[in-house]
Amino acid sequence: MEFKNYNRIKEEILLFQEHHKRKISLIAVSKKQSIEKIHGLINYGHLDFGENYVQEGVDKIKSISNPSIIWHFIGPIQSNKTKLITEYFNWVHSVDRLKIYDRIKNEANSLGKKINFLIQINISKENTKSGININDLDAILDGIDPNDDFVCFRGIMAIPSNTTNINLLKTEFSLLNKAFISLKERFHTVDTLSMGMSNDYLLAMNHGSTMIRVGSKIFGERI
Ligand SMILES: *Cc1c(COP(=O)(O)O)cnc(C)c1O
């Protein structure tokens, strides 16, 4: 199996890191992609994968059953799914209310399992998208325990407006980066700004992203 775009993205990241002295991690978004393709990318040495749907993700995690893989949950969260998410995933990018945080914290503590999480910001303000309004961030932060042994607050995630308007994307990425910078001052554990997908990852990297989530550009169209 060949992943030409994957190799190209890795090269782009290496060049960027050299030039900007800032590390970027790449999450391969494998939702609606076959197990065979995921195995193909694992054979390239890739370890970070993102899934959006709990049952699909859990089925793949069980089937692949490789403890070196780091699984990122990046989809909307229903509170009755927090137990499965905590049991099978390592990162959760889409925490958008304290109820979800509290449930993940309790599950992680009872499993004795470390979970890294991000708060999802709805930067486009489209009500079809999950996440909190950026102005409501402070309210949720007051409920977060930065010293919990198992649940570690690492930063924020966002999906920008679905647009080709570069200026709008730049505005949204800049607002997110500003929020990220002030979070880093308040929480010693914060080091992650998860933004940038197949069509905008270079722009996102240039606006402070530390983690990009790329699906179709690596794997091709979803099934
Ligand atoms: C699907 C998805 C991605 C990847 O999207 P592509 O455009 O295929 O790169 C990234 N992040 C989230 C939250 C997604 O749902």
Structural features:
9 helices; 223 residues; eight-stranded parallel β-sheet; alpha/beta; single chain; 8 strands; binds pyridoxal-5'-phosphate
Residues in β-strands, percent:
15-25%
User: How far apart are the termini?
Assistant: 17 Å
Largest sheet: 8 strands, parallel
Unique bound compounds: pyridoxal-5'-phosphate
Number of helical stretches of at least 4 residues: 9
Summary, kept brief:
This protein is of the alpha/beta class and 223 residues long. It is built from nine helices and eight strands. The structure holds pyridoxal-5'-phosphate.
How would you describe what is shown here?
With 223 residues, the protein is α/β, with parallel strands linked by helices. The chain has nine helices and eight strands. Strands 7-6-5-4-3-2-1-8 form an eight-stranded parallel sheet. Helix 4 crosses helix 5 (98-111). The two termini are 17 Å apart. Bound molecules: pyridoxal-5'-phosphate. Pyridoxal-5'-phosphate (PLP) binds next to strand 8 and helix 9.
Write the layout of secondary structure elements.
Blueprint: H1 4-20, E1 25-29, H2 35-43, E2 48-51, H3 54-64, E3 70-73, H4 82-88, E4 91-95, H5 98-111, E5 115-121, H6 137-141, E6 151-158, H7 166-186, E7 192-194, H8 201-206, E8 211-214, H9 216-219
Parallel strand pairs: 1-2, 1-8, 2-3, 3-4, 4-5, 5-6, 6-7
Helix pairs in contact: 4-5
The structure holds pyridoxal-5'-phosphate.
